[in-house]
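[job 4471] stage=fold_predict status=RUNNING
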Amino acid sequence: MDNTGYVRLSPFDSRFNSLGSYCNSLILQWSLDGTNWSDFVPDAKIQRVISLVMGDYAGYRNYIAEEDWNEIKSKVKQEYSPSYVMVLLTQAWEHHDQRNTKYAILDGVTALELAVDELLKKGLDKMNIQFNKIDEFNTTQRLPVKTMIVTALKGNITTKEIEDTLEAIKIRNDIVHEGKNPPADAGKRLVGLINTISKLIEDREFRFLKANHSNAIRDISKWEEEKQKFLEKKN
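[job 4471] inference complete, writing structure tokens
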């Protein structure tokens, strides 16, 4: 549903399904007399799966591998529940994957604000410092300044990711206060923003999975090469 209150339908694409399958997904019906209704299925209900040969756009880190499934299994046993910050990050990436960049930026920067305040509270709690000065800090220090302080102390965030995060804050402010639309490079900035927050909260990079990426094939040697690079970077 968009900001006008209307439901936004996914566009029909004959590469992925037939018109009959698309209409069936919308539960469309038709009638000659307004009393007796039938499903509107103009042709056979067919869905198509496309195999792609992976290029440089997709690497090992974009996919769930065996070790990831093992980690998921372990988390489930521990009754792991993601924080609200991580839920917002997931929503931000979903919006980006669906090309709703404006909402992706809004959710992403909201997650950043929560993550920064959470880390500040935890740090002060460890030092047994009372948190009664945080309201004053919030009013005197803007989010970009707090972000630079926290990311510098964290030490596991790249300069590029910090730059993208600060630019994402500026884009969010332009959307909220000026009514502007995100610039063309906002999606690239969002990747840096999400990784910054993920490293702040869970000490790891966010896995940028795609909802409708189809299935893919790749030479085994190339796959193993990508895996080795990923593990070296991870360690």
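[job 4471] summary: The chain has a mean pLDDT of 78.
[job 4471] exit 0
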